[in-house]
Amino acid sequence: MPASPSTARAINDRFALRLLQQEGPLTAGQLKQLTGLSRPTVADLVDRLTAAGLIAVVGEAGEQRRGPNAKVYGIVADRAHLAALDVRTEGVAVAVADLVGRVLAEASVPIDGDTGTGPAVEQAVALVERAVKEAGADRLHTVGIGAPGLIDPAGGELRDSSGLPAWHRRLVAALQERLPEARVSVENETNLAALAEQRDGAARDRDTFVLLWLGHGTGAAVVLDGALRRGASGGTGEIGFLPVPGTSALPTSTDCEGGFHSLAAAAAVVDLAVECGVPVAAGQEPSVVGVVRAAAAVVREAVGRVPGAAPPDRMPEVAAGASPSGDPGPAARFLDALADRIAVGVASVVAILDPGCVVLGGEVGQAGGAVLAARVQDRIARMTPLPTEVRATTLGGGAVLRGALLTARDRAQEELFAPRER
Fold it and tell me: What InterPro entries does UniProt report for this protein, alphabetically (predicted)?
């Protein structure tokens, strides 16, 4: 059955808005060319979208022509403002953006583990309110939150999880209460990181891949045929609970110690570096990112892959660990041992899903870069007959915030750009 004239107009309007969002400001002539619509139809939709306050004239075309230059139309970016939150065990980061995704303000605050639930929630909400004010926004249309733990696939709520701060669950309700006009949603942090890697990062050319998150903890996100998979209970990718060899116990339903978490989480990685003889500056709490980054820099410099790389001894978190002859020594042993551990988890994922591509994400994946990714890929090639490319993240720890912002923008545009009968 053919669409009614009003439905056809609504569909054309949404198509034009999507083009303006993807391509940037366009003239009516460019819209005609890209949509294939007639000139009168494009003129009508431009008038409708302008009257609705969704687009406006943002300039004129620069080409030489008789008569006035063609008007250039763009989405009204301040029609709606969005916020994205990256909620971690140790703090919160927030970004406020306009409807086209341009970031207007960013802020973060550490939250100590001894902070009570009420004060922690208040710190996080106050951070959002300050960022909104700094961005010059009157109110928020959509808020996207990335948090560790399980998300209930039915209600979209963060489930109570042992080992995670109680203020995580309270924060969502508090934001909805303080921002009653905003649409607030929460998603698992690793899932959001995978969406960001697919849209803007290392997996842009992949419809099927797995993101392995390596940071304070471990996690995984599964994208199959372009769709994010969450599982029956929202737990797809909880790889920290995966039983693996090399640990002294088995994980339990309430504690992932003894699982893959015990091999590849931040504390275990730092301990591994010390075991491999990577010297850590006395009196300093070693940063897992600094340890891995410094080791990778030593190896890269030793093999000459990155000429002119910054000397690793300028990194305060860890000494280079190289001999005077340039032998990478402890650094290479550490990265080899770390790759062995990571490959145990990756091989399990590959055997079940055959994704063809695994992205090493998070701060540790970024710090190890191509050096660590190549070592993991070499081990996977020996452990499974399934061809698997291992890539390093291009977004690192910022992928969660980026994914939350992309999700918030998509939801806001879905509502504002939705076809309406006229």
Answer: ArsR-like_HTH, ATPase_NBD, HTH_MarR-typ, ROK, WH-like_DNA-bd_sf, WH_DNA-bd_sf
Q: Which domains does the chain have, with CATH numbers?
A: 5-75 (1.10.10.10), 79-193+401-416 (3.30.420.40), 204-394 (3.30.420.40)
Start-end of H helices in 73-220: 117-135, 167-178, 189-200
- Give the total residue count for the chain: 422
DSSP H or E run through 60: strand 55-60
Q: Which residue has the higher pLDDT, 421 or 146?
A: 146
Instruction: Give the chain's end-to-end CA distance (angstroms, integer).
Output: 19
The DSSP result for 175-202, as a single string, is HHHHSTTSEEEEEEHHHHHHHHHHHHST
- DSSP-assigned letter for residue 85: E
Q: How far apart are CA 177 and CA 346, in angstroms?
A: 41
Query: Do the strands 227-229 and 357-361 form a parallel or antiparallel pair, or are they unpaired?
Result: unpaired
Q: How is residue 223 written in tokens?
A: 């994208």
Nearest to 81 by CA among 144, 171, 10: 144
The radius of gyration of the chain from alpha carbons, rounded to an integer in Å, stands at 25
Residue carrying the six token digits 């697919």: 198
pTM of the model: 0.86
Query: Do the Cβ atoms of 381 and 373 come closer than 8 Å?
Result: no
Helix (H, G, I), strand (E, B) or coil at 171: helix
- pLDDT tens digits, residue range 326-376? 456 899 999 999 999 999 999 999 999 999 999 999 999 999 999 999 999
